[in-house]
Amino acid sequence: MLIMDKIKYQTREEKKGIKMKKESFGTGRNGEAVSVYMIENKSGGQVRVTDYGASLVSVIVPDRDGNLQDVLLGYDNVTGYENNTCYFGAVIGRNGNRIADAKVTVNGTVYELDKNDNGNNLHSGRKGMDTLVWDVREHTENSITLSCRSADLEQGFPGNMDAQITYTLTDDYALELSYEAVSDKDTVANFTNHAYFNLSGHASGDVLGQELMLRASHFTPVINAEAIPTGEIAPVAGTALDFTQAKAIGRDMEADDIQIGYGGGFDHNFVLDKTHKGAFELAAEAYSPVTGIEMKAYTDLPGIQFYSGNFITEQAGKQGAVYQKRHGFCLETQYYPNSVNEPGFEAPFLKAGETYRTKTSYQFGVRQ
Ligand code: BGC
User: Fold this and answer.
1) Is the CB of 216 under 6 A from ligand 1?
2) How far separated are the first and last CA of the chain, in Å rounded?
């Protein structure tokens, strides 16, 4: 159950007098104090999360020589996240990815959503949950739980929704993301996280030489550069989108393939090969030959958006890093884009009073 009281939250450790790792992350546009929280495992790994958008700020894991590497693109303070047009590290809610014509029908009523992407709705709208300051509910040494409320008709979606995410960093380097949401009206719930990874280090340049395997023999082709799916579920075999065997992200990036043309690179939803619906299984595996760091993504969701960072414009990132096009890649676990309007796709509708629950895990390791 989500606790929606507004009583000032104290962590278990704070109650016991143990100082948890929390620092100021600056002042938000509306005068709010924003913080950054650290979680750590017992093996030296470290993840930082800000309450602004419940966004990931850094993911620090060892490389094959035991040196720590920050493999996540991010910013130094809240202002970076407020000006962020790429959704770096943010939780996307209530709906990840695109909804055609920014319209969704729930119980016969058409709801008009924020049109923030060529007349379509992308990542819920301009003021999605990625722009809210979340409440910290629980903060232990290796996990943090944040919650937020999205009001009825916010960005156009029906129902007051209470959402919650827990990030946990396990001792064997799994970064687990567990989401929950409840609404007082039937609505849409399709959360994701928009982390941009660079397994050679966040400031190391492009990700084209990093390898990727997607456990997906099908994908959802898009109609045009607006990236709304045609509704078809097409095989990847024989196309540039075939990642069933690991290959360098850059290998087929310039392939003469209309789908690549529409995305300006890879920006597609892959249909995960599952043993059964809802199975929490391996979805993707990425690897940097430079650092030896590998990352395996597991999810119970049916799809994953592999986005090769095609629209990252040159900008200042954390600690003096300069990020550019394709300096990070995203593996956004999700229901398929526009699944609320596409009868052939499993749709992410949530009934009033029922609890939406989903889990994704990014498991880090090294290859020698
Ligand atoms: C989308 C891209 C979009 C990006 C925003 C991704 O999830 O698939 O098309 O440009 O988010 O930075």
Assistant:
1) no
2) 43
Q: In this structure, which residue's CA is closest to atom 8 in ligand 1? A: 267
Buried-state track 209-238, b at ≥16 Cβ within 10 A, e below 16: ebbbbbbbbbbbbbeeeebbbeeebeebee
How many C-alpha atoms does 251 have within 13 Å on its Cβ side? 14
**Which residue's CA is the nearest one to ligand 1's atom 7?**
97
Among 194, 202, 218, 268, the one annotated catalytic = 194
- Model confidence at 11, pLDDT cuts 50, 70, 90, reads low
Atom of ligand 1 nearest to the CA of 263: 9
- Active-site residue, 327 included: no
Say if residue 261's pLDDT is above 50: yes
Percent helix, strand, coil in the chain, to 5, is: 5, 40, 55
Query: Which tokens sit at 7?
Result: 């009583």
Beta bridge partners of 190: 95
Reference 60, options 12, 11, 21; nearest CA is 21
Give percent of the chain above pLDDT 90. Answer: 94
Q: Give the DSSP H or E segment for 271.
A: strand 267-271
More confident residue, 305 or 6: 305
Whether the CB of 311 sits within 6 Å of ligand 1: yes
Residue 82, number of CB atoms within 10 A of its CB: 16
State whether residue 104 is helix, strand or coil: strand
Q: Whose CA is nearest to atom 4 of ligand 1?
A: 86
How far is residue 246 from each of residues 30, 215, 289, 344, 352, measured CA to CA in Å? Answer: 45, 10, 12, 29, 42
* Distances from the Cα of 102 to the Cα of 1, 53, 113, 269, angstroms: 31, 22, 5, 19
pLDDT tens sequence across 147-158:
999 999 999 999
109 strand-pairing partners: 106
Q: Residue 120: how many CB atoms within 10 A of its CB?
A: 20
